[in-house]
Design brief:
The protein is mainly alpha-helical. The two termini are 14 Å apart. It is built from nine helices and no strands.
Length: 249
């Protein structure tokens, strides 16, 4: 064995170890994204109608991306263990596709965040005006008001002009305390202000988005640019294996 190959062998072993660790982290990231996509699809389905004028493809894209990352991560582990130069190059190409997809998604979400807020205002206002207490969007409105401890779009007065108010008043999901929230009180425009939450749901949601947009963008771009580490490791290892004709024993 030539001295050069003897010197290169520890470097290859080190790169393979680092790449295997990266593939493991990459695979875990895919599992998390896949789980979040499925959770969004099956648990948050009704709430999606409040942030989109039509059917949203976001949970499907997230699920598909997570599934692809899981498969790519497994392939990366296999390629690293086998030490095949062409497989490592293919893995680098797959990582570049994931990087491009995540980068486009992150930039789109950051650039169009104001349009997302406008769409939420429109769809949530329409859901309040057409509330009947039975359909999916009405149940989603109740869920938002109960979980966020808010009432209406801007405040409880958003309900006074709704189709539901003359017959049902303000929905019980706005109540501060259900034990102190009689049906007659909810129909009294003067009395109801003391029984329901004062803050509107739109302000709460938009405040959360604006307050955390930096964190969300940082995590998104951080995950995306981490693919560059994997691509660099895969390309370096592929070049070393190809140049020194390294074979696993």
């Amino acid at each position: 064995m030539s001295p050069r190959r003897m010197e290169t062998k520890p470097v290859i072993f080190c790169l393979k170890t680092l790449l295997l660790l990266y593939c493991l982290v990459f695979w875990v990231t895919g599992v998390v994204m896949l789980s979040v996509g499925l959770w969004w699809r099956f648990m948050l389905g009704p709430f999606t109608s409040l942030i989109s004028t039509g059917s949203s493809n976001a949970p499907y894209v997230l699920t598909a991306t997570g599934g692809a990352i899981v498969l790519f991560g497994l392939f990366g582990c296999f390629a690293t263990c086998r030490g095949g130069a062409w497989m490592l190059r293919l893995y680098a190409v797959l990582l570049s596709l994931v990087f491009t997809t995540e980068l486009i998604a992150g930039i789109s979400g950051f650039v169009f965040r104001h349009e997302i807020k406008g769409t939420f205002l429109t769809t949530f206002s329409d859901a309040v005006m057409r509330y009947d207490g039975r359909d999916d969007r009405s149940l989603a409105v109740d869920g938002v008001q109960r979980r966020l401890l808010c009432c209406g779009v801007h405040n409880y007065t958003s309900w006074l002009g709704s189709l539901y108010f003359p017959a049902g008043g303000v929905p019980a999901s706005c109540c501060i305390s259900f034990s102190d929230c009689a049906a007659a009180d909810l129909k009294d425009a003067a009395l109801v202000s003391h029984k329901v939450h004062k803050q509107g749901c739109f302000e709460l949601v938009t405040s959360f988005l604006e307050g955390n947009v930096g964190i969300i963008a940082g995590v998104t771009f951080g995950v995306a640019f981490s693919q560059l580490i994997g691509m660099s490791l895969a390309c370096c290892l592929s070049r070393l294996i190809h140049g020194n004709q390294y074979e696993m024993v």
